[in-house]
Fold:
Amino acid sequence: MSKRVLILMGSDSDLKIMKGACEALEDLGVGYEVRISSAHRVPDKTADLAKGAAQRGFGAIIAGAGGAAHLPGVLAAHTTLPVIGVPIDTGSLRGVDALYAIVQMPKGIPVATVAVNGAYNAGLLAAQILAVGDEALARRLSEYRAKMAAQVEEKDADLQKLGVEGYLARRS
Ligand code: RP5
Structure:
Protein backbone atom coordinates (compact mmCIF):
# COMPACT_ATOMS: atom_id res chain seq x y z
CA MET A 1 0.00 0.00 0.00
CA SER A 2 1.19 3.53 -0.82
CA LYS A 3 2.67 5.51 2.03
CA ARG A 4 0.86 8.64 3.22
CA VAL A 5 2.13 11.97 4.56
CA LEU A 6 1.44 13.26 8.07
CA ILE A 7 0.92 17.03 8.08
CA LEU A 8 1.15 18.75 11.45
CA MET A 9 0.97 22.36 12.56
CA GLY A 10 1.40 24.13 15.86
CA SER A 11 -1.87 26.07 15.73
CA ASP A 12 -5.03 26.45 13.67
CA SER A 13 -3.68 29.90 12.80
CA ASP A 14 -1.13 28.05 10.59
CA LEU A 15 -3.83 26.26 8.60
CA LYS A 16 -4.34 28.89 5.89
CA ILE A 17 -0.66 28.49 4.96
CA MET A 18 -0.39 24.75 5.59
CA LYS A 19 -3.31 23.97 3.28
CA GLY A 20 -0.74 24.49 0.51
CA ALA A 21 0.85 21.17 1.50
CA CYS A 22 -2.56 19.47 1.29
CA GLU A 23 -3.09 20.94 -2.18
CA ALA A 24 0.26 19.71 -3.47
CA LEU A 25 -0.39 16.20 -2.20
CA GLU A 26 -3.89 16.20 -3.68
CA ASP A 27 -2.47 17.38 -7.03
CA LEU A 28 -0.17 14.34 -6.97
CA GLY A 29 -2.65 11.81 -5.63
CA VAL A 30 -0.82 11.27 -2.34
CA GLY A 31 -2.84 10.48 0.79
CA TYR A 32 -2.36 12.54 3.93
CA GLU A 33 -3.65 13.22 7.42
CA VAL A 34 -3.65 16.76 8.79
CA ARG A 35 -3.47 17.50 12.53
CA ILE A 36 -2.92 20.36 14.98
CA SER A 37 -0.33 19.52 17.64
CA SER A 38 1.88 22.03 19.38
CA ALA A 39 5.33 21.09 20.67
CA HIS A 40 4.79 23.41 23.61
CA ARG A 41 1.06 23.25 24.38
CA VAL A 42 0.57 19.48 23.92
CA PRO A 43 4.08 18.01 24.08
CA ASP A 44 3.01 14.42 24.90
CA LYS A 45 0.51 14.26 22.02
CA THR A 46 3.19 15.63 19.67
CA ALA A 47 5.68 12.98 20.74
CA ASP A 48 3.08 10.22 20.40
CA LEU A 49 2.14 11.31 16.86
CA ALA A 50 5.80 11.20 15.82
CA LYS A 51 6.50 7.86 17.53
CA GLY A 52 3.46 6.18 15.94
CA ALA A 53 3.78 7.69 12.46
CA ALA A 54 5.88 5.00 10.74
CA GLN A 55 3.72 2.22 12.12
CA ARG A 56 0.57 4.00 10.91
CA GLY A 57 1.83 3.95 7.32
CA PHE A 58 3.25 7.44 6.96
CA GLY A 59 6.43 7.80 4.88
CA ALA A 60 7.18 11.46 5.62
CA ILE A 61 6.10 14.23 7.99
CA ILE A 62 5.49 17.89 7.16
CA ALA A 63 5.43 20.25 10.13
CA GLY A 64 4.55 23.94 10.03
CA ALA A 65 5.16 26.31 12.93
CA GLY A 66 5.74 29.97 13.59
CA GLY A 67 7.65 31.91 16.23
CA ALA A 68 9.93 29.68 18.31
CA ALA A 69 8.87 26.91 15.87
CA HIS A 70 10.09 23.85 17.78
CA LEU A 71 7.51 21.46 16.30
CA PRO A 72 9.51 20.07 13.33
CA GLY A 73 12.62 19.50 15.45
CA VAL A 74 10.72 17.83 18.28
CA LEU A 75 8.98 15.50 15.82
CA ALA A 76 12.32 14.66 14.20
CA ALA A 77 13.70 13.76 17.63
CA HIS A 78 11.00 11.09 18.01
CA THR A 79 11.10 9.41 14.57
CA THR A 80 13.54 8.46 11.83
CA LEU A 81 10.94 9.34 9.17
CA PRO A 82 12.04 12.35 7.10
CA VAL A 83 10.63 15.60 8.56
CA ILE A 84 10.09 18.70 6.41
CA GLY A 85 9.70 21.97 8.29
CA VAL A 86 7.64 24.91 7.06
CA PRO A 87 8.50 28.22 8.78
CA ILE A 88 5.30 30.23 9.17
CA ASP A 89 5.21 34.02 9.04
CA THR A 90 3.28 34.98 12.16
CA GLY A 91 3.76 38.71 11.62
CA SER A 92 6.22 40.22 14.06
CA LEU A 93 9.51 38.91 12.60
CA ARG A 94 8.12 38.01 9.14
CA GLY A 95 8.87 34.30 9.62
CA VAL A 96 12.63 34.75 9.92
CA ASP A 97 12.38 33.67 13.57
CA ALA A 98 10.73 30.38 12.55
CA LEU A 99 13.10 29.90 9.61
CA TYR A 100 16.19 30.16 11.83
CA ALA A 101 14.61 27.98 14.53
CA ILE A 102 13.73 25.20 12.08
CA VAL A 103 16.82 25.25 9.89
CA GLN A 104 19.40 25.30 12.69
CA MET A 105 19.00 21.70 13.85
CA PRO A 106 21.87 20.08 15.74
CA LYS A 107 24.06 17.48 14.04
CA GLY A 108 22.36 14.08 14.16
CA ILE A 109 18.71 15.18 13.93
CA PRO A 110 18.07 16.80 10.54
CA VAL A 111 14.95 18.65 9.39
CA ALA A 112 14.59 19.58 5.71
CA THR A 113 13.49 23.21 5.66
CA VAL A 114 11.53 24.95 2.91
CA ALA A 115 10.94 28.68 2.39
CA VAL A 116 8.91 30.82 4.77
CA ASN A 117 5.27 29.88 4.07
CA GLY A 118 6.54 27.32 1.50
CA ALA A 119 3.92 24.69 2.31
CA TYR A 120 3.21 23.74 -1.32
CA ASN A 121 6.88 22.93 -1.89
CA ALA A 122 6.89 20.91 1.34
CA GLY A 123 4.09 18.82 -0.15
CA LEU A 124 6.04 18.35 -3.38
CA LEU A 125 9.20 17.40 -1.48
CA ALA A 126 7.30 14.86 0.61
CA ALA A 127 5.89 13.37 -2.60
CA GLN A 128 9.39 13.20 -4.09
CA ILE A 129 10.61 11.35 -0.99
CA LEU A 130 7.79 8.81 -1.29
CA ALA A 131 8.37 8.50 -5.04
CA VAL A 132 11.77 6.86 -4.43
CA GLY A 133 9.84 3.66 -3.70
CA ASP A 134 6.73 4.34 -5.81
CA GLU A 135 7.13 4.30 -9.61
CA ALA A 136 3.58 5.47 -10.32
CA LEU A 137 4.08 8.52 -8.10
CA ALA A 138 7.45 9.22 -9.75
CA ARG A 139 5.64 9.26 -13.13
CA ARG A 140 3.02 11.68 -11.80
CA LEU A 141 5.81 13.97 -10.58
CA SER A 142 7.42 13.90 -14.05
CA GLU A 143 4.06 14.77 -15.60
CA TYR A 144 3.66 17.65 -13.13
CA ARG A 145 7.07 19.02 -14.16
CA ALA A 146 6.27 18.63 -17.87
CA LYS A 147 2.98 20.52 -17.41
CA MET A 148 4.78 23.31 -15.56
CA ALA A 149 7.39 23.57 -18.33
CA ALA A 150 4.64 23.69 -20.98
CA GLN A 151 2.97 26.60 -19.13
CA VAL A 152 6.22 28.57 -19.12
CA GLU A 153 6.67 27.96 -22.87
CA GLU A 154 3.11 29.07 -23.52
CA LYS A 155 3.70 32.30 -21.58
CA ASP A 156 6.95 32.96 -23.44
CA ALA A 157 5.23 32.42 -26.80
CA ASP A 158 2.47 34.87 -25.77
CA LEU A 159 5.08 37.42 -24.68
CA GLN A 160 6.78 37.19 -28.07
CA LYS A 161 3.45 37.61 -29.83
CA LEU A 162 1.96 40.42 -27.69
CA GLY A 163 5.05 42.37 -26.57
CA VAL A 164 5.60 43.67 -23.03
CA GLU A 165 2.73 46.17 -22.89
CA GLY A 166 0.26 43.87 -24.61
CA TYR A 167 1.15 40.98 -22.33
CA LEU A 168 0.78 43.09 -19.17
CA ALA A 169 -2.49 44.61 -20.39
CA ARG A 170 -3.92 41.14 -20.93
CA ARG A 171 -2.86 40.08 -17.42
CA SER A 172 -4.53 43.01 -15.68
C1 RP5 B 1 3.28 28.51 16.99
O1 RP5 B 1 2.87 29.73 17.49
C2 RP5 B 1 2.23 28.11 16.01
O2 RP5 B 1 2.77 27.25 15.04
C3 RP5 B 1 1.78 29.41 15.41
O3 RP5 B 1 2.44 29.69 14.19
C4 RP5 B 1 2.20 30.43 16.46
C5 RP5 B 1 1.03 31.21 17.02
O4 RP5 B 1 0.05 30.33 17.52
P1 RP5 B 1 -1.37 30.88 18.02
O5 RP5 B 1 -1.08 31.79 19.16
O6 RP5 B 1 -1.97 31.60 16.83
O7 RP5 B 1 -2.18 29.68 18.42
O8 RP5 B 1 3.42 27.55 17.97
Summary: The mean pLDDT is 97. The first strand starts at residue 4 and ends at 9.
